[in-house]
Amino acid sequence: MDFFDKLGQKATQTYKYTTEKTSKIAKEAKLKMAMNEHKDSIEEIYTEIGKKIYQNHIAKEDVDIDITLELEEYCIQIDELSDRIEEERKELLKLKNKKQCTNCYYEIQNDYNYCPNCGKTQQDIEEVNDKTDENMDNIVEEE
Questions:
Q1: Is the pTM of this model over 0.70?
Q2: Which domains does the chain have, with CATH numbers?
Q3: What are the angstrom distances between the C-alpha of 51 and each of 56, 70, 73, 79?
Q4: What does the alpha-carbon distance between residue 14 and residue 40 come to, in Å, rounded to a whole number?
Q5: Is 109 strand, coil or helix?
Q6: Averages of pLDDT over each 10 residues, the chain, 143 residues
Q7: Strand ranges in the chain using DSSP code E only, listed in sequence order
Q8: Within 10 A of 89 (CB to CB), how many other CB atoms are there?
Q9: Residues linked to residue 99 through DSSP beta bridges, in sequence order
Q10: Can you tell me the distance from the alpha carbon of 28 to that of 98, in angstroms, rounded to the nearest whole number?
């Protein structure tokens, strides 16, 4: 192989690596931005809940059915946004080749057997998820 062939191959490898790294960084930034937007939405809902409760207090009325249903709807929205944030967080960890300690929730490398923060022995995330799924299945079957 001559010098220019080697140079071309090296440039191609560098380009591929740079493209993959840039794509990964862009995905991470997009996930973080989505998480922040969802957190902002939750804060707005908290404010609306507070306003509704205070307006009810000012009116010096007992909590009526309408406001209770409205507050329940806000709570459902918060639950949905929280679920989205959790999914985005998990995807972000996966992009960073990390997992979360099952004890202290510290972010650690996937191949760590012990948490450097609390020292807890780590199981594979898949094992934990499988056990959680099995437990949920057992609960449903028992009912």
A1: no
A2: 1-96 (1.10.287), 102-143 (no CATH)
A3: 8, 12, 15, 19
A4: 39
A5: strand
A6: 79 83 90 96 96 83 71 95 95 92 91 92 61 51 49
A7: 98-100, 107-109
A8: 15
A9: 108
A10: 13
